[in-house]
Amino acid sequence: MRKSLLSACLLLMGMNIQAQSFETAAQAVEHMGIGWNLGNTLDAHDGNLCPDIVKSETMWGQPVTRPELMAMMKEAGFMTIRVPVTWYPHMDENGKVDEVWMQRVHEVVDYVIDQGMYCVLNVHHDTGDGPQWLHASMEVYEAQKSRFEYLWTQIAEEFRDYDHHLLFEAYNEMLDKYNSWCFASFARTGGYNAADASDAYQAINSYAQSFVDAVRATGGNNSQRNLVVNTYAATCGSGTWNAHLADPLKEMALPDDPAGSGHIAFEVHCYPSIFKEDNSIRPMSEIKTEVNQAVSRINSHLVGKGAPVIIGEWAGTYVNKTEQNYEQRHQHLIDFVDFFVKTMKDNHIATIEWMGLSDGAFRSDPVFSQPDLAAAIAKAYHGDDYQGLWPSLDDRTEYVAFEGDKTLYWGKGIHIGAAIFAAMDKTLQLHLTYASNGQLNDCIQLYDGNWGEKTPFYVDGKSFNGDFNPNQYYAPSAESRTTVLTFSPEVYDILAQKGLIIHGEGITLTRAVLVNTTTGITETIVEQPNDAPVYDLSGRRVTHPQRGIYIRRGKKFVVSTTANSR
After folding, report:
1. pTM, two decimal places
2. According to the model, what pLDDT value does residue 230 have?
3. Which residues, at least 6 apart from 275, have a Cβ–Cβ distance to it below 8 Å?
């Protein structure tokens, strides 16, 4: 019995020593500084069970996440990555999370942690505007309490040994039975109802308490891990158009915490409009007033309860270079970002930008789709002299638009966004690496980004109108080959506005690369079968070309590997 008592004492001492090494939530929020959301990725869903984790991760247009993306964010000056995850498409009828999905989430979290950044892991579109299973209703809470706590028990146990760089966020933007934004019962027919609103706020506080209890019960580092709970709808309470706008902040309770005080943070989301409804520029004075009002309410109603605050989502508006008054509108955006980040830093509030900095295929490279915006955020926080790295397509001679293993079907393929083409030269080439079934009707088909018209292109100087049958053009083969496509300047202008859809039949695409070139020389891989004769620059026919420049069908191309390497 004495031995058991001694063991228990030693365990408690170990937990206490471990707890002392964990920073408080206030310290964590200070260190988290500025961050970015890996949005529309692990949170993507179509409302159905999805055992295919690659399909799940990419169904909203984002590529499979790679560690290089997190390295880029770190080098750009970002200190935190929020990883939104939707869990219910990967849960069985008993609420157990699929092990393969859990391991993928674990892998992505490791990408962040390995960079020394903070990671916020949450339950995302399990809440929201629709048929999701978590709503701010006491009736729903009582029905789902056990399932919700079991989900967090599984997550907490999976990451039990992680240090203070990993934070858990209980739920995302949870809405009432009316799917009300702004404040509870806002969307109710007939207007605000005090009883319905009170029920929703009670439910939010109940979910928050269940979350804390479930995580703390798993022990280990979770006994002191910093936890994050959101207000109703994650609203920040800004605005003056309704007397109830600040209610979600006023009614939010700080959960009781077995860990003691200091290890819980509140989260809100904040999306100030910087342009008016008619798309004209909103005066910066109005924007500053709105942001300052939100900060005042955050400090009064949340920080005043004894916990720091994270802006888990915020964003400026993307300004397209084709817009009128682009320079003025772009500067307005940069001015807003500078003010917003500096204001939150001055108030010890961490900010995590919502996904737009690197979006879609830009993440495959990876590069920033808005490098100037990323730089503005970093400099606003770290100082004007901060020297980060903000790579863009302008820094690349080639851009990997797709890399993987995609079987093309009619109506299903890959999409390369217009912004990517707009960042490249008009003389760009599209290198497609693929294998076919070896059938003569195997086909690659291109559309101009909206299924409006087939996209004309050239292969070896020969024109095609949207359709390319590789086994009719080359000798029939099921081997992997690379085909280089080029476009006229007129077609490029269309792609720079609409993007490109690549689909087809009988084709498995493994790589799509856009290459900038102004030399008129095509870089080609010799593994590509082609029955056209090859000549050197002196006009002599060459059977086995080595590395160098050659001519085929009147066009120059570069051999980067030897012919006998096949």
Report:
1. 0.77
2. 98
3. 281, 282, 317, 329
